[in-house]
Amino acid sequence: MNSRILRMCNKLLIQQTISRGYAFKAVKRPDPKTLKMPAPGTAPSIMQIIKEKIRLNGPLTVAEYMHIISTNPTEGYYMKKEVIGEAGDFITSPEISQLFGEIIGIWFYSETQKMGPGKPLQIVELGPGKATLLLDILRVLNCFDYKPQDLSLHLVEISSTMQSVQANRLCISHREVDIALPHNYEGETVSGIKVYWYNDLKKVPTNFSWYIAHEFFDVLPIHKFEKTDDGWRELLIDLDGQDKLYYRITAEETASCKSLIRPPLDSGDRTELEISARSLGISRQLATRVDRYGGIALIADYGHEGEKGDTFRAFHKHKVVNPLENPGQCDLTADVDFSQLRIAASKSPYSDNYALVMGPVKQKDFLERCQAQIRLQVLLDNAKSDEDREKVQKSYEMLVDPQKMGERFKFMAFYPSVMEELLNKHPPLGFSTPKS
């Protein structure tokens, strides 16, 4: 009896299992190659997007707010216009003087000689701007007899607008590539150097490389925290009764509080804290790549060593403005906390070694230790007029003046952990005082 019932149940179950297959329907997915962005002017504004997200999901973290404004495909700040230069919202050191990029190129070449010939070479820049820094570095490498077959350029860039600017400045020809490839764009310089663009550092080949991150980390999204009587709480962005954005502090610990605020980041008597999870992750990536596959990473940005807590702001037409007003029209930025980058990248005493971290040092000290004054004198001697000489001198002063960029901007470098003994004997250029 029991066996007959069991056979009947099995038969029913088998029939049900088979019949369930008819509930599924084949769906044709859209071809990514045919997908197009909305026409200009037809997409919702950044403010509309932010308001709708807040209404649907509640207040935004500062990191979510920054991410939307920076990377929205149609209305994002970096996606729709050139933002660097006199006509933009800010200007960078390579745009101020060719001396800056040339010194960076000489520094990389000099430090690479401690490792070997440094060929073949990948130059990887994160957020290359208008590609001015790369052009200056390539001019230096040409003097050191690097041939087109000796190197390739790998640019990590999420903005199609800036990608176009970079391609037009660097390449004699350039084109889109198949979506299946790790890079999304490619080209060649007039001398035949191959150039590739990526939307993520993880997709860049893991070969011996020079990694450059100049004014890159300062725009990565941050979480903002304040210390209360009940412990650390996160600052969020919400809408008030007049439909305007404002800051509010959470009553309870958020997931970001629990995952990001750990010793020693919260040490001392700090009452405000800014942490970029993205920055910590990329710092670790750079350190791991350098340590495992060889090369050097150089970070140059304005920042501090853990003494500041509230640096989030916006720039519009070279002036500081309220970051919660006119979202999408201003450059959102926060000072880089170099102490956090050091923690994320430093060699550890455990099984996983990362990188030897040098710095940070002030931009003024780095350039002067690399003997930038010698290059300055050459540029002054070759200037064609008094007006040109004055321009060269003022540009250099802007880079090194403590009241301008000289102290606010800092440099940090990552070296392979196996170089510890060598660097003790031959200290890294720019991060130590040269012997007279």
UniProtKB/TrEMBL annotation:
Record key words, sorted: Methyltransferase, Mitochondrion, Transferase
Molecular functions per Gene Ontology: protein-arginine omega-N symmetric methyltransferase activity
GO BP annotations listed: methylation; mitochondrial respiratory chain complex I assembly
Catalytic activity: L-arginyl-[protein] + 2 S-adenosyl-L-methionine = N(omega),N(omega)'-dimethyl-L-arginyl-[protein] + 2 S-adenosyl-L-homocysteine + 2 H(+)
Compartments in which it is found: Mitochondrion
Major enzyme class: transferase
InterPro entries in alphabetical order: NDUFAF7, NDUFAF7_sf, SAM-dependent_MTases_sf
Protein name: Protein arginine methyltransferase NDUFAF7
Source species: Helicoverpa armigera
Gene symbol of the encoding locus: HaOG207990
